Amino acid sequence: PVALDPAQADAGVEQAVGALHDAAAVDGRRPVAITYAADPGKKGLTRTVAAFARVRHPEEVLLVAGLEALPPTIAGTEGVVAVGRLERPVFRALVRSVGTFVIAPRREDYGLVQLEALAEGARVVTTEAPGPYAALPVIRQLWPEQVVGADASDGELGRAIRSALDARPDPAEQLRATAAVEPWAPEQVRQILRERVIPQMLDGRPPS
Q1: pLDDT, tens digit, for every residue of 19-28?
Q2: Closest CA to 100 of 124, 75, 74, 121
Q3: Which class in CATH covers the domain with range 6-203?
Q4: What does DSSP assign to residue 46?
Q5: b/e string for 83-106 if b means 16 or more Cβ within 10 A?
Q6: What is the pLDDT of residues 139-156, one digit of tens each?
Q7: pTM score, two decimals?
Q8: Domain definitions of the chain by residue range
Q9: Which of 70, 86, 150, 175 is placed for a possible disulfide with 128 were both Cys, Cβ 3.0 to 4.6 Å?
């Protein structure tokens, strides 16, 4: 195989992200939030879309990664665009460029995508969820107002989304988000999985 020059790789990622923004920016619209829903049921896509729809401004768009097309039940929702299955560098760069990640999981065993969003300096809005949701304490520590209960209404989740969207970009806050996931570097992640997350998943204990 031919090694790809890092500069070429970065340029390719930048080009891909630009194309995704352009595709969503129809009639003056702009992506303001992104979610991930390779498994729409588990990731609570319908709930995320309903909450976003309640609070979006006419020009605002929610991007849905992980799906080539939206499920029929939400396919006609205004301001929601599926962007397909993305390579990880493209996904992470897209999250970084949009700045707000939203998810309402029915169950969360880990929260890797949320941790990746934090690592990119994005604000994260989430519901609580059953399971050893390892990313949840990190998100709650950074933005308690952006974590709502598992049984929260669409309105409550929508208000948390609106709060994140209306927040002014803060480089110091982005650095705090990135620093918060430092313990989740690959080797530390493997250790936490071995010592805490997997045992809890096996015997049903609540996350510690």
Answers
A1: 999 999 888 8
A2: 124
A3: alpha beta
A4: H
A5: beebeeebbbbbbbbbbbbbbbbe
A6: 999 999 999 999 999 999
A7: 0.85
A8: 6-203
A9: 150
